[in-house]
Automatic annotation (TrEMBL):
It comes from the Bacteria. It comes from Achromobacter aloeverae. PROSITE patterns: HTH_ARAC_FAMILY_1 (PS00041), HTH_ARAC_FAMILY_2 (PS01124). Pfam families: HTH_18 (PF12833). This is AraC family transcriptional regulator. The lineage of its organism: Bacteria, Pseudomonadati, Pseudomonadota, Betaproteobacteria, Burkholderiales. SUPFAM superfamilies: Homeodomain-like. InterPro entries: AraC_XylS_family_regulators (IPR050204), Homeodomain-like_sf (IPR009057), HTH_AraC (IPR018060), HTH_AraC-typ_CS (IPR018062). Residues 114-215 form the HTH araC/xylS-type domain. PANTHER family: HTH-TYPE TRANSCRIPTIONAL ACTIVATOR RHAS-RELATED, TRANSCRIPTIONAL REGULATORY PROTEIN.
Length: 224
């Protein structure tokens, strides 16, 4: 597992590209190629997880998705371990920390994310649609104010902030894994035109879409 302490970086795992930032980690399965690049100051924890530490369903899910959300509780543990390593960590502490971290990553089935699961699938399947808050709330069956509370508790952001990140993920996938033009990707992800996408993408990643696509091509070439 690769876990951000601060800053961010672009990473490709097994042919799938994404950006690691606060609250987003990456799972690198054994014997899977990966490459990363960043032009800014950052720090990450690289955690070697033994086969027996995760159940088969978790391994399968993480291997399929590659990227995962780090829960607020788990993020506090990441910050703690970073400070502990500065003072010289030990194996016993690391083993205990890993157990706590994996426990903090588990989401109870009755939690806010489970209530949002149907909506999240719809948003992921059509990230470029002009979703309104009242439409989202109706799908979940709650008021608009309650929807904001559910998203805040589950993801520490608003519904549209979460949707914006899904659009960025769709754009990164389109740039790194398809031959679609940048204009086509902009339309697919819900941007009015290529210029609007370029502004939003540069703000989110410090790269233009063209620069990001070239970077992903170079990362793949370096692995060959």
């Amino acid at each position: 597992m690769v876990l951000p302490v601060y800053g961010g970086m672009e990473i490709e795992v097994g042919g799938r590209g994404g950006r690691l930032t606060q609250g987003v980690g990456a799972f690198v399965p054994r014997n899977t190629g990966h490459a990363q690049s960043s032009g800014a100051k950052n720090r990450f924890l690289v955690v070697d997880v033994s086969t027996g530490a995760l159940d088969s369903a978790s391994v399968e899910r993480l291997s399929r998705n590659r990227f995962f959300a780090v829960t607020p509780a788990a993020e506090h543990l990441v910050q703690y371990m970073a400070l502990a390593l500065d003072g010289g960590g030990d194996e016993a502490r690391s083993t205990h920390w890993l157990s706590l971290f994996l426990g903090a990553m588990e989401t109870p089935v009755t939690g806010p994310k489970s209530r949002l699961s149907g909506l999240l699938e719809k948003l992921k399947s059509r990230p470029g649609r002009a979703w309104t808050v009242d439409e989202m709330a109706a799908i979940v069956g709650v008021s608009e104010s309650r929807l904001y509370v559910l998203f805040r508790n589950a993801f520490d952001c608003t519904p549209h902030a979460w949707l914006a990140e899904q659009r960025m993920q769709a754009v990164r996938h389109g740039l790194s894994s398809t031959s679609m033009s940048i204009a086509e990707i902009a339309g697919m992800a819900g941007f009015s035109d290529q210029s609007a996408l370029t502004r939003a993408f540069r703000q989110a990643t410090n790269f233009t879409p063209a620069e990001y696509r070239k970077l992903q091509q170079e990362l793949r070439s370096n692995k060959q």
